[in-house]
Amino acid sequence: MQEIQLRQAKATLSSVIDQARQGQPSIITRHGRPEAVVLGFEEWQRLSQVPSFGKLLMAAPLDDGDLPERQGGVRDPEL
């Protein structure tokens, strides 16, 4: 992945986009700090459809007894 200054990215935008379409994203910097990433649309679609870890856990086909019982933590009020 290449780093390119914003000024240079503006001047060569067509080339930056062509590279992104070929699988070579670019990090756009401003005053030496990363500000944005240019990547191909297909790659963006792939990354934007990745489910969150929480959603994956909630969708897991678990049965009773698949997870260990909780040890410690909340105190039993009858003790």
Automatic annotation (TrEMBL):
Functional note: Antitoxin component of a type II toxin-antitoxin (TA) system.
Similarity comment: family membership: Belongs to the phD/YefM antitoxin family.
Species whose genome carries this gene: Methylorubrum suomiense
Superkingdom classification of source: Bacteria
Name by which UniProt lists this protein: Antitoxin
